[in-house]
Amino acid sequence: MLLEAHGLGYRYGGGRGNQPWLLREVSLAVEPGEVVGLVGPSGCGKSTLARLLAGYEPPQEGRVTFGGQPLPRGGYRPVQLVFQHPEKAVNPRWTLKRTLHEGGAADPDLLEALGIQESWLSRWPNELSGGELQRFCVARALGPQTRVLIADEMTTMLDAITQAQLWGAVLERARQRQMAVVVISHEHRLVERLCSRVIELGSR
Ligand SMILES: Nc1ncnc2c1ncn2[C@@H]1O[C@H](COP(=O)(O)OP(=O)(O)OP(=O)(O)O)[C@@H](O)[C@H]1O
Protein backbone atom coordinates (compact mmCIF):
# COMPACT_ATOMS: atom_id res chain seq x y z
CA MET A 1 0.00 0.00 0.00
CA LEU A 2 1.14 3.50 -0.77
CA LEU A 3 -0.63 5.55 1.87
CA GLU A 4 -2.25 4.06 4.95
CA ALA A 5 -4.04 5.38 8.00
CA HIS A 6 -4.04 3.00 10.94
CA GLY A 7 -6.63 3.68 13.65
CA LEU A 8 -6.36 7.47 13.56
CA GLY A 9 -7.81 9.52 16.35
CA TYR A 10 -7.84 13.32 16.48
CA ARG A 11 -9.48 16.04 18.53
CA TYR A 12 -8.87 19.76 18.39
CA GLY A 13 -7.38 21.30 21.49
CA GLY A 14 -5.23 18.22 22.09
CA GLY A 15 -7.78 16.82 24.55
CA ARG A 16 -7.80 19.97 26.70
CA GLY A 17 -11.07 21.81 27.25
CA ASN A 18 -13.14 18.64 26.77
CA GLN A 19 -13.24 18.91 22.98
CA PRO A 20 -14.81 15.67 21.73
CA TRP A 21 -12.98 13.29 19.42
CA LEU A 22 -13.53 14.37 15.82
CA LEU A 23 -11.90 11.31 14.28
CA ARG A 24 -11.64 7.94 15.99
CA GLU A 25 -10.45 4.58 14.70
CA VAL A 26 -10.12 5.84 11.14
CA SER A 27 -8.27 3.38 8.93
CA LEU A 28 -7.89 3.51 5.19
CA ALA A 29 -5.44 2.54 2.48
CA VAL A 30 -4.74 3.97 -0.95
CA GLU A 31 -2.84 2.16 -3.69
CA PRO A 32 -0.61 3.70 -6.38
CA GLY A 33 -2.63 5.03 -9.30
CA GLU A 34 -5.94 4.79 -7.44
CA VAL A 35 -8.44 7.65 -7.55
CA VAL A 36 -10.46 7.46 -4.33
CA GLY A 37 -13.32 9.63 -3.12
CA LEU A 38 -13.55 10.76 0.50
CA VAL A 39 -17.06 11.91 1.35
CA GLY A 40 -19.15 12.60 4.45
CA PRO A 41 -21.40 15.23 5.96
CA SER A 42 -20.17 18.75 6.53
CA GLY A 43 -18.06 18.98 9.66
CA CYS A 44 -17.34 15.25 9.94
CA GLY A 45 -13.60 15.87 9.66
CA LYS A 46 -12.66 15.35 6.00
CA SER A 47 -10.32 18.35 5.82
CA THR A 48 -8.80 17.45 9.18
CA LEU A 49 -8.18 13.91 7.97
CA ALA A 50 -6.62 15.32 4.79
CA ARG A 51 -4.13 17.30 6.91
CA LEU A 52 -3.24 14.22 8.95
CA LEU A 53 -2.74 12.13 5.80
CA ALA A 54 -0.47 14.78 4.31
CA GLY A 55 1.55 15.01 7.52
CA TYR A 56 0.66 18.64 8.26
CA GLU A 57 -0.05 17.59 11.83
CA PRO A 58 0.23 14.32 13.75
CA PRO A 59 -2.77 12.29 14.92
CA GLN A 60 -3.23 11.83 18.68
CA GLU A 61 -3.98 8.15 18.12
CA GLY A 62 -2.80 5.79 15.41
CA ARG A 63 -0.36 6.53 12.62
CA VAL A 64 -0.05 7.36 8.95
CA THR A 65 2.40 5.38 6.83
CA PHE A 66 3.71 6.00 3.36
CA GLY A 67 5.11 2.89 1.66
CA GLY A 68 4.99 1.19 5.06
CA GLN A 69 7.16 3.87 6.73
CA PRO A 70 6.29 6.99 8.72
CA LEU A 71 5.76 10.04 6.49
CA PRO A 72 9.08 11.80 5.83
CA ARG A 73 9.58 14.67 8.28
CA GLY A 74 11.67 16.97 6.14
CA GLY A 75 12.18 17.70 2.46
CA TYR A 76 9.58 17.37 -0.27
CA ARG A 77 6.23 16.02 0.90
CA PRO A 78 5.24 13.01 -1.24
CA VAL A 79 1.64 13.50 -0.12
CA GLN A 80 0.53 16.90 -1.40
CA LEU A 81 -2.62 18.73 -0.42
CA VAL A 82 -4.59 21.25 -2.49
CA PHE A 83 -7.30 23.21 -0.67
CA GLN A 84 -10.42 24.98 -1.84
CA HIS A 85 -9.07 28.49 -1.23
CA PRO A 86 -5.87 29.15 -3.20
CA GLU A 87 -5.45 32.65 -1.76
CA LYS A 88 -4.82 31.06 1.67
CA ALA A 89 -2.25 28.66 0.23
CA VAL A 90 0.17 31.14 -1.34
CA ASN A 91 2.49 33.79 0.03
CA PRO A 92 0.99 37.15 -1.05
CA ARG A 93 4.49 38.66 -1.20
CA TRP A 94 5.83 36.14 -3.71
CA THR A 95 5.37 36.34 -7.45
CA LEU A 96 3.62 33.36 -9.02
CA LYS A 97 6.90 32.25 -10.54
CA ARG A 98 8.46 31.96 -7.11
CA THR A 99 5.36 30.24 -5.71
CA LEU A 100 5.47 27.72 -8.51
CA HIS A 101 9.14 26.95 -8.00
CA GLU A 102 8.48 26.11 -4.36
CA GLY A 103 7.41 22.69 -5.69
CA GLY A 104 10.53 22.30 -7.87
CA ALA A 105 11.14 23.29 -11.49
CA ALA A 106 7.81 23.54 -13.30
CA ASP A 107 7.16 21.26 -16.27
CA PRO A 108 6.10 23.42 -19.27
CA ASP A 109 3.71 20.70 -20.52
CA LEU A 110 1.97 20.69 -17.15
CA LEU A 111 1.62 24.49 -17.17
CA GLU A 112 0.09 24.31 -20.62
CA ALA A 113 -2.28 21.49 -19.65
CA LEU A 114 -3.44 23.57 -16.68
CA GLY A 115 -3.96 26.63 -18.88
CA ILE A 116 -1.32 28.73 -17.08
CA GLN A 117 -0.25 31.65 -19.23
CA GLU A 118 3.39 32.73 -19.35
CA SER A 119 2.43 36.35 -18.59
CA TRP A 120 0.87 35.34 -15.24
CA LEU A 121 4.23 34.20 -13.87
CA SER A 122 5.47 37.70 -13.13
CA ARG A 123 2.25 38.73 -11.36
CA TRP A 124 1.40 38.79 -7.65
CA PRO A 125 -1.34 36.51 -6.23
CA ASN A 126 -3.83 39.40 -5.85
CA GLU A 127 -3.48 40.09 -9.58
CA LEU A 128 -5.05 36.75 -10.56
CA SER A 129 -8.59 35.41 -10.29
CA GLY A 130 -9.30 32.58 -7.85
CA GLY A 131 -9.46 30.08 -10.70
CA GLU A 132 -6.18 31.29 -12.21
CA LEU A 133 -4.49 31.11 -8.81
CA GLN A 134 -5.82 27.62 -8.17
CA ARG A 135 -4.10 26.42 -11.35
CA PHE A 136 -0.78 27.47 -9.79
CA CYS A 137 -1.58 25.62 -6.59
CA VAL A 138 -2.33 22.47 -8.58
CA ALA A 139 0.86 22.87 -10.64
CA ARG A 140 2.93 23.37 -7.48
CA ALA A 141 1.42 20.24 -5.91
CA LEU A 142 2.20 18.11 -8.96
CA GLY A 143 5.99 18.11 -8.62
CA PRO A 144 7.69 14.98 -9.98
CA GLN A 145 8.10 13.53 -6.48
CA THR A 146 4.40 13.74 -5.60
CA ARG A 147 3.00 10.24 -5.09
CA VAL A 148 -0.38 11.12 -3.61
CA LEU A 149 -2.46 14.21 -4.29
CA ILE A 150 -5.23 15.06 -1.82
CA ALA A 151 -7.68 17.38 -3.52
CA ASP A 152 -9.85 18.97 -0.81
CA GLU A 153 -12.72 20.68 -2.66
CA MET A 154 -10.05 21.63 -5.19
CA THR A 155 -12.39 22.69 -7.98
CA THR A 156 -15.50 23.60 -6.00
CA MET A 157 -15.28 27.31 -6.83
CA LEU A 158 -14.50 26.84 -10.51
CA ASP A 159 -16.76 26.81 -13.56
CA ALA A 160 -17.45 23.50 -15.31
CA ILE A 161 -14.95 24.07 -18.14
CA THR A 162 -12.08 24.96 -15.80
CA GLN A 163 -13.00 22.02 -13.54
CA ALA A 164 -12.80 19.64 -16.48
CA GLN A 165 -9.47 21.11 -17.60
CA LEU A 166 -7.86 20.80 -14.16
CA TRP A 167 -9.15 17.27 -13.55
CA GLY A 168 -8.08 16.20 -17.04
CA ALA A 169 -4.53 17.38 -16.35
CA VAL A 170 -4.42 15.82 -12.88
CA LEU A 171 -5.79 12.43 -13.97
CA GLU A 172 -3.42 12.25 -16.92
CA ARG A 173 -0.44 12.75 -14.55
CA ALA A 174 -1.91 10.24 -12.13
CA ARG A 175 -2.07 7.62 -14.91
CA GLN A 176 1.41 8.41 -16.22
CA ARG A 177 3.11 8.29 -12.82
CA GLN A 178 0.89 5.88 -10.90
CA MET A 179 0.14 8.74 -8.55
CA ALA A 180 -2.82 8.21 -6.23
CA VAL A 181 -5.50 10.89 -5.89
CA VAL A 182 -7.88 11.37 -2.96
CA VAL A 183 -10.88 13.46 -4.01
CA ILE A 184 -12.74 15.25 -1.21
CA SER A 185 -15.90 16.82 -2.58
CA HIS A 186 -19.53 17.51 -1.82
CA GLU A 187 -20.31 17.10 -5.51
CA HIS A 188 -21.51 13.53 -5.77
CA ARG A 189 -21.48 13.53 -9.54
CA LEU A 190 -17.86 14.62 -9.64
CA VAL A 191 -16.86 11.90 -7.19
CA GLU A 192 -18.80 9.25 -9.12
CA ARG A 193 -17.24 10.33 -12.38
CA LEU A 194 -13.65 10.46 -11.16
CA CYS A 195 -13.30 7.78 -8.53
CA SER A 196 -13.12 4.01 -8.72
CA ARG A 197 -13.87 3.74 -4.98
CA VAL A 198 -15.45 5.95 -2.33
CA ILE A 199 -14.62 6.06 1.39
CA GLU A 200 -17.41 7.39 3.61
CA LEU A 201 -16.41 9.20 6.75
CA GLY A 202 -19.28 8.93 9.24
CA SER A 203 -20.81 11.80 11.16
CA ARG A 204 -19.93 12.20 14.82
N1 LIG B 1 -8.59 24.71 14.16
C1 LIG B 1 -9.72 24.20 14.66
N2 LIG B 1 -10.00 24.28 15.97
C2 LIG B 1 -11.13 23.76 16.49
N3 LIG B 1 -12.05 23.11 15.76
C3 LIG B 1 -11.83 23.01 14.43
C4 LIG B 1 -10.67 23.55 13.83
N4 LIG B 1 -10.72 23.29 12.49
C5 LIG B 1 -11.89 22.62 12.30
N5 LIG B 1 -12.54 22.47 13.45
C6 LIG B 1 -13.83 21.78 13.64
O1 LIG B 1 -13.65 20.41 13.32
C7 LIG B 1 -14.80 19.92 12.65
C8 LIG B 1 -14.39 19.26 11.35
O2 LIG B 1 -13.86 20.22 10.47
P1 LIG B 1 -13.35 19.80 9.02
O3 LIG B 1 -13.05 21.06 8.28
O4 LIG B 1 -12.28 18.78 9.15
O5 LIG B 1 -14.67 19.08 8.44
P2 LIG B 1 -15.12 18.76 6.95
O6 LIG B 1 -15.75 17.41 6.98
O7 LIG B 1 -13.99 18.95 6.02
O8 LIG B 1 -16.22 19.88 6.72
P3 LIG B 1 -16.81 20.56 5.39
O9 LIG B 1 -17.37 19.42 4.57
O10 LIG B 1 -17.87 21.48 5.93
O11 LIG B 1 -15.66 21.27 4.73
C9 LIG B 1 -15.75 21.09 12.48
O12 LIG B 1 -16.75 20.99 13.47
C10 LIG B 1 -14.88 22.29 12.70
O13 LIG B 1 -15.61 23.35 13.28
Overall description:
The chain has a single domain, classed as P-loop containing nucleotide triphosphate hydrolases (Rossmann fold, 3-Layer(aba) Sandwich), CATH 3.40.50.300. The protein has 204 residues and is α/β, with parallel strands linked by helices. The strands form two sheets. The protein has a five-stranded parallel β-sheet, sandwiched between helices. Strands 2-1-4-5 form a four-stranded antiparallel β-sheet. It has six helices and nine strands; from the N terminus they run E-E-E-H-E-E-E-H-H-H-E-H-E-H-E. The mean pLDDT is 93. It binds adenosine-5'-triphosphate. The site of adenosine-5'-triphosphate has 10 residues, from helix 1.
Q: What's the topology here?
A:
Layout: E1 3-10, E2 23-30, E3 35-39, H1 46-54, E4 61-66, E5 69-70, E6 79-82, H2 96-101, H3 108-113, H4 130-141, E7 148-152, H5 160-177, E8 180-184, H6 188-194, E9 197-200
Parallel strand pairs: 3-8, 3-9, 6-7, 7-8
Antiparallel strand pairs: 1-2, 1-4, 4-5
The structure holds adenosine-5'-triphosphate.
Residues 12, 22, 40, 42-48 line the site of adenosine-5'-triphosphate.
Which descriptors apply to this entry?
single chain; 204 residues; alpha/beta; Rossmann fold; five-stranded parallel beta sheet; four-stranded antiparallel beta sheet; 6 helices; 9 strands; 28% helix; globular; binds adenosine-5'-triphosphate; P-loop_NTPase
